[in-house]
Structures are given as C-alpha cells and as structure tokens.
Amino acid sequence: MISLYDLALTSIHGIGSKKAAELNEMNIRNVGELLDYLPYRYDDYRIRPLAELQDADKATLQATIATVGSVQRFGRMKTRISCKVIVEGKWITAVWFNQHFLKDRLIPGTEFVITGRWDAKRSQLTVSETEFPSSRQIKSGSVQPVYALQGEVTQSFLRKLMLQALAQYGTDIAERLPDEIIRKHGLISRSQAIIQLHQPSSEEEMERARHRMAFEELFIFQLKLQALRAWTRDRTEGIAQTFDREEVRAFVRSLPFSLTDAQKMVVSDLLNDLEHPACMNRLLQGDVGSGKTVVAAIAMFAVASGGGQVAMMVPTEILAEQHARTLKDWFAPFGITAELLTGRTTTKQRQSILAGLQSGMVQILIGTHALIQPDVYFQKLALVVTDEQHRFGVEQRAMLRRKGPRPDVLAMTATPIPRTLAISAFGDMDVSTINEMPKGRKPIQTHWVRKNKLDQVMAFIRKQLEEGRQAYVICPLIEESEKLDVQNAIDLHAQLQAELAEYEVALLHGRMTSALKDEAMQAFSSHQSHVLVSTTVVEVGVNVPNATVMVIYDADRFGLSQLHQLRGRVGRGEHQSYCVLVADAKSETAQARLKVMKATNDGFEISRKDLELRGPGDFFGTKQSGLPDFRFADFLADFQLMEVAREEAGRMTAQPDFWTAYTYQNLRDLLQKDERFTGIIVD
Ligand code: ADP
Ligand code: MG
Fold first, then answer.
1. Between 3 and 467, where is the model more confident?
2. Fewer CB within 10 A of the terminal residue: the chain, N end or C end?
3. Closest CA to 651 of 182, 15, 226, 276
C-alpha cells in the first residue's frame, strides 16, 4: 500500500495545483502531512440552554425572530441592528454590529441559529455569526476545528478540504505503534484518533484521541532517548575496570555503618557498570541525607584498588574539604592515597599533587573547579565523579571527562526529580535512585512560626544546645544583594552571640576568605562552636550529624527545593531534628510552599509540588532542560503515562530484532528523522 506521505495533494478531489502550491507554503506537501495538520483549538457551536450561560460566555443559541430589526447608524460606515428574539420561550435581545445587510432577513417568525457573546445583565447576545435555515448548515450544533492559517488559505477552505481528505483517505492513515502496545493499553488506532481530532464527535471520544496521541508522543520521545542510549553505549568503548570484589567487600565492612538495601542495589549497579567495557554514564539521585557519598566512595575505592585514578569534583570548597576528610579516613587503612585540590591549595602543595597525579602516586583527587585547570594531568583517569552535578555546566563536566581516555562517569544529585523526569532531563544517562533513608533516622519535625515568636525560637535553640546538640541559623535572604545578605549575617551573628553568651556562635558567609570559611566550618563540625549563623552557603552537601536544629529566617523568600536542601543539613544522625521556618508569609504561593514543607519530608513529593507550583519550564530552567514541547502530552497530568511509555520503550529497544524486524520499520523511520541519530553524541 502506498504511504499517504507519498501521495500528492492533488489526488484529493477538488484540489488543483494552485491550491496545492498554497498548502506547500504551509509545509503541507502531501496527503499524510495534511492529515497530520491538526487543529490547534475548536469552536464550539453546540446549542446551549440559556440557564447554563455565564456572563461573557461565547454561546450558540437556537432562536426565533420576534420583532423586526431596528437599525442605528453612527459614523459613516457603522451600524447597529437590534431585535428581539425568543429562546426557550424567553425574550432576549440580539445585536449585530456592521452587518447592515442582515436587516431585510430578520423577519419575525423565522428560526435561526446565532452565535456570539452573552451579556447576562442585559439578557443580550452580541452576534458574530448568523445561520439561517437556508444556509448550508455545517456549523450549528457541532464543534468545529480551528486550524492555524498562513497565506491565502482560509479557515473554511481548510475545513472543507479536511472533510474531503478524511472521506477519501481517513481509514488509510497508517498505524505507528506496534499492535501489542495498542492492545495492551487499550488505545484507539492512529486513524481513529486523527479523524476524531479533525471532527470531534463527543468530549469522551476526543479525550480518547488526545490520550492516544499523547501516548504516541511520549512513547516516541522515550524510544528516542533509549535507542540513543543503547546506541551510544554500543559505540563508546570505555575501559573495563578490573578490581577484586573481595577487596571491595572488605572496604564496605570497614565502614562505620552497614549499607541500606537501596545503597546496596546502587552499589551493585555501579560495580557492574565499572566492570563492563562500555563507558559508564550514570546519574545517582537520592534525597538529601540518603547517603550518596558512601556509595560513590565504594565505586572510587573499586577503581583505585584496581589501579585506576579517580577525580571527584564538587561545587564548593567547604564541601570539597568535608569530602576529602571523610574519604581520606575511609581509604587510609587500605593504603589508598587521596588528595584535595582547591583554589587555596598552596603552590608548593599543588606542585607535588600534580606530580603525584602524573606518576600515579595520587590515586584519588577531590576538589572544586580547580580540577579542570589545563595543567592538571592524570596518569590514568578511569572514573570521574561529580557531586551536586546540577551545579555544574555541561562544559565543565565535559572538561573533567576529557582528562582521561573515556573514563566512567558518575554524577550525583540531590535535586530530587521524580525518576521519569530525571531520565527525560538527563537524556542518555542511566539513573539509579536511593529511595530509602539510613535506619534509625527520625523524620525531621518542621514548624512554621511568625516573626513575633522569635523569643520562643531562641529558647528552643538554647534547650537543644543544653542537650549537647548544635544549630544552624540561616539568615534572611535579600534578593540580588549579596552585600546586604552578608550584613544581615554579621548583624544576626552579633545578636545571637550576645543572647547565647555562654556558647560559641560561628559565622559563615560568601564574602569571607576561604581560610576563614574553612575555619568556621571546621569549628562547627568538630563541635568547637555550637551555633552556625550562615547565608545559604551551607546549602549543599554539608554534613554535621550532631546538628539538630535548622532555623531559616524569612523562609518565604526561599524556593521549595532550596528549603528542602537547607533542611537536609539536619536529621543526619540518630537525634530528633527540627526545622523552624520563620516567616510572615503574605503571598498565597509562599504560604503554599511553607505548608508543603510542614506536610512532608519526602524530597520527591516536594519536587512534585514544586513542579506543580512553578510549571515545568521554570522548574528545569529554560533551555537546559532538554524537555521537548509536547503537543498532546502534559507533564503533570500525564505523569503516569510517561512512566508507562518509558517502560514500553525500554522493552522495545531491548528486543534484539528492534533494529531489523519489518514490524518496527515505521518506528525506525521516525527515529531516523531525528538529527541525533546522524552521528552526534549528546552530552
Ligand atoms: P547525601 O545523600 O545528602 O549526600 P551523605 O552521603 O552526606 O548524604 O550522608 C548523610 C549522612 O548519613 C552521613 O553522615 C553519612 O555518613 C550517613 N550515612 C550514609 N549511609 C548510611 C547508612 N547506611 N547508615 C547510617 N548512616 C549512613
Ligand atoms: Mg551529598
């Protein structure tokens, strides 16, 4: 059977080469493309009962003319006709502007259908379209498609043309989805859906059509991602790491705690990936405090114990130093050498680290952006880890990767994006999720207090300090002025130190030198100070398990994910932890955010709410998101459908005959149209 995409427009009755040329201008070049040209909205000409109408509704009414029209003129060309009509036995006024020619046709007793804007107060319809019984009734009583127009092509021409094209070829519209999927998910055929979308018969039918097209859209999107992934994986020969699993087990046993089941599963994903000759490209996501670091450490250990080098890049010096301290402790008993490289590493230290990297003496390097400086060379970089990966740009991550010959890649993020969206947003990465907190953690209790209750907050902090715990106090955020934020921090620090005179109150903000920052952080984490007053610089990654109170001033100025990140600094040990949100939230969305924070500790739930409150565009940031504009699918409403489509697409691409069998030719054709399959590998 010939494809509709090879069939000339002129094969539709009533279309000549002139009309075909006009349609070409709209990128409609054949019958297939014409039928795919779907309306962007509908005009509803169904007749509605008067009682249902709201003021300013657009309405179509069945009416009988009751009086002759009276004409008013104003200006040279302008006219207004009004007459009384009877609808459902009631008298209403119908008004026409600048349709003087209608006057002689408004004969009492005539029935007609009028469409226009309803004015409830006046019981009056301002008519835009009038249909007398003599006119060919194509509109009244129906829902009419509205197509985007260009050039000479008119709406009524396109409507008639579609009707004709559907009559001739509607049932020949080819199916794209495999039979098994259609049957399994009870979808209607592509042909039925397209016909329905051009000529809707009912709301239910139209929803079924939309659902079917949304599924197709999501399925093809997922198919592309997964095919691309399989394709990239096959072609990116990496290094098959060799290490002794027994040694890795010994390392795991040496850790101060035992892994959660979720951590064990992710570790097993990682070790398998590392041993595999293809390049690993895996995203590890897990809620704040779920224990990602240790999982990365195990992968790093495996690679280093097998003779490869590892680079771990983190966004802040504070975090780099913290990780270096922890990892050095864990690795030292096994004779694995780890070094820290940041912007404040002294020249002399730096020289010796760089030399050690080239000779292979330094096995693990932890640091900030300092890692991607051009003079940093590795002898055999085999694994690259980025913590808080959303903080880095694509280019920075690529620069680190290029320091080795096809190293394996592990990226970690605490931004808890629901899994499906993560896969969409991160394209060709495999995703592992830690969906469980370490045992013994008590859920953080979150309270929202007004600013006039600050003395209660202070009393509460004092009580926790007396019990030997520590507290963070996050300063009010002043938008777009780091300088003022810093001043706030300084003032608040002075105030708190005065009130809590018997305790040590430390200060941390972005304008302090690295050395001072480190000192403040170090003092807090070793419990030399008891309270840490800080701007949001503690937001990422910081881990002080003895801290149990997180007070956030002006919490209404922070976004949901930032609040969740901040709150995640506590609740990291065995003690009950608290988050106190201080705010007189005025706006409704600010209140909504604080309520979400009170209601749940679950980062996935929070990010779902965040997505709901902000919409996907803002949520993911503009261009970076990698999320396509879907025509039929809606990210929130079709969330489940995306998951189903993802599973099906995964099953499909895993079939060995997907790339060869005739059954999948249609799908392969669609994939081949995507430029990403012509040779470029996306990041
Ligand atoms: P995040 O996922 O936010 O990066 P971390 O890796 O910093 O979390 O871990 C948070 C805290 O939980 C750390 O103090 C860490 O040592 C501890 N931790 C991690 N895994 C476990 C576990 N299985 N049992 C107990 N504590 C754990
Ligand atoms: Mg972390």
1. 467
2. N
3. 226
- Given its phi and psi angles, is residue 440 left (phi above 0), alpha (psi -120 to 50 degrees) or beta? left
Q: Report the C-alpha gap between 542 and 546 in whole angstroms.
A: 12
What pLDDT shows up at residue 386?
Answer: 94
pLDDT value at position 487? 75
Ligand nearest to the CA of 290: 1
Q: How far is the CA of 288 from the centre of ligand 1 (A)?
A: 9
The residue assigned the tokens 């929130």 is 636
Number of Cα atoms under 13 Å in the Cβ half of residue 208: 17
Name the pairing type of β-strands 41-44 and 143-146: antiparallel
Strand spans (E) along 503-577: 505-508, 531-534, 547-553
Tokens of 531: 């309270």
Site to probe by mutation for ligand 1, drawn from 283, 572, 575 as the one with most ligand atoms within 8 Å of Cβ, is 572
% pLDDT > 90, the chain: 52
Assess contact for 366 and 312: CB atoms under 8 A. yes
Phi/psi region, residue 365 (left: phi>0; alpha: psi -120 to 50; beta: rest), is: beta
Please name which ligand lies nearest the alpha carbon of 286. Answer: 1
What predicted TM-score, i.e. pTM, was given to this entire model? 0.70
In the numeric block, the tokens 């009010």 are attached to 476
Spatial contact of 284 and 295, defined as CB atoms under 8 Å apart: yes
Record the tokens describing residue 251, joined without a space: 């390392």
Q: Which helix (H) or strand (E) holds 461?
A: helix 454-466
What is the 8-class DSSP label of residue 288? T
Q: What is 168-204 written as a DSSP string?
A: HHGGGPPP-S-HHHHHHTTPPPHHHHHHHHHS---HH
What six digits make up the tokens of 372?
């991607």
Residue having the nearest C-alpha atom to atom 22 of ligand 1: 438
* Residue 44 φ/ψ region, left for φ over 0, alpha for ψ in the -120 to 50 degree band, beta for the rest: beta
More confident residue, 434 or 539: 434
Distance between Cα 385 and ligand 2 center (Å): 12
Q: Pick from 391-395, 541-545, 611-615, 658-662 the range whose average pLDDT is largest.
A: 541-545
The residue among 667 and 553 whose pLDDT is bigger is 553
Neighbours of 418 (CB within 10 A): 20
Residue 550 binned pLDDT confidence (cut-offs 50, 70, 90): very high
Instruction: Provide the pLDDT confidence category of residue 481 given band limits of 50, 70 and 90.
Output: low
Q: How far, in Å, CA of 318 to CA of 339, rounded?
A: 15
Q: What is the DSSP letter of 96?
A: E
For residue 225, give the amino acid letter.
Answer: L
Rounded CA gap, 348 and 351, in Å?
5
Q: What is the DSSP letter of 147?
A: -
Q: Is 541 exposed, middle or buried (0-12, 13-18, 19+ CB in 10 A)?
A: buried
In angstroms, the CA 443 to CA 5 distance is 58
CB 93 within 8 Å of CB 123: yes
Is 367 in contact with 376 (CB distance < 8 Å)?
no
User: CB within 8 A of 150, min separation 6: which ones?
Assistant: 25, 26
Exposure on the CB side of residue 4, measured as CA atoms within 13 A: 19
